[in-house]
Amino acid sequence: MEGTNMDPSSNAASQNQPQNQSQPAQQKSNIITKSIPKNFIIFWAILTLIFLYYKRYLLIYPTGYFELEFVGIAITLSVQYFRLFCGSRGNKNEASLITFFFILLCLPCLIGHIYYVILQTYALAFEVIMGVIIVLCIIIELLLAFFASIDFRSLEKAQ
Q: How confident is the model over 131-144, as pLDDT tens digits?
């Protein structure tokens, strides 16, 4: 009996420990999965900038093209972030108007990524593969957002 702890509060605390440990793990998992598109876009921007500077020192760029491609990356990244924010907010609120803005913002993002796949001055094979994956993901998101917007619109009319 000397080795056992008879305090009921310590017993309850030891029973709650596994539950408390699993909740932060679930929250951390949810945070990671919710931010995968944003993390992928940051990954794209960093790699594209690294490759852009690599090509700048390895190859000869025509006057002004390097700066244009750099500014294009910044614009594409900012539109991409706003697009993802609108998509997330529109989905959480089930709002057709916000989802419509998401759909509209998909178009400049598609144009920007297609430029970096096809029309940029020098394209590395890895950049092309990464760009094609992003373009396909945006097209899938665009289709899903279109159908979600229709559903959200019918829900708004029903209310």
A: 999 999 999 999 99
